[in-house]
Every structure is written in C-alpha cells, then in structure tokens.
Amino acid sequence: MRLDGFGLFVENMENMIKFYRDVLGFEIKEDLDTSNVYLKKDGTLFLLYGRKDFEKMTNRKYEYVKGLNGHFELALYVDSFDEVDDTYNRIIKQGAKPILEPTTEPWGQRTCYIADPEGNLIEIGSWNKKFEEKDE
User: Fold this and answer.
1) What is the CATH number of domain 5-58?
2) pTM (predicted TM-score)
C-alpha cells in the first residue's frame, strides 16, 4: 500500500478551488464542475470533496468542524527564511487568514501559519536550506 494523496471535505467548492489554485499554486487535475476536484502540488495528489456529495455517496451524515480546524495541518516548505516572510505576506494580501506571523523557533525553523477559507491550518516553513538539503 502506498500513499496516493489526501483530501479535504469542503463546503464551498468554488472558494476552496480558487484559494488552493490561485493563492497557493496547486494544479487542477480535473474539471472544475465535478464534485471531487483533483489538485496536484509537487507530485502529491490533493483532493477537495464536496461535503454534501460525500454524504450522499456514503448515505451518512457527518459533523464538520466550524471555524479553525485544529485536527491537522498542511505543511508547505520554502527554501529560505526570507521566503517564509515573503510568502506569508503575499498570501495574507490575497485573503488568507493570519494565524501566526513568521517566527524563528528555538529549534531553528522559521515558520508561520495561515488558514484557508474554511479554517484548515496551513504551515509555511523553512530550515533556510533547499528542500532536497533539509534532511542532510
């Protein structure tokens, strides 16, 4: 078994597509008019599932977090500390909700947090090294 991708259950598909595509730069893998939208980022499949469509498909009702979602985070890596700051500022200007301004943590990582339009947490961080070098 191998990880194929991951997904979010979304209330407002149009807003979420625009955010992940236009603000964060995810590629759309399928047409916009589907209830399950496939996006791709750096070789990872990212899915947006319509909540109502998923409930109908599984014939079940689900409870969803309202406001900020503290159940998980999506982590994005940039190559430098300056890029953390620049990316944070650009994304906030494009409508992302600020959660934590760029901060250099005691363990040496520079990180910040934003939220997408439905409150899912997104970390943007760096070890001030290119991604390929970060584990070396």
Assistant:
1) 3.10.180.10
2) 0.89
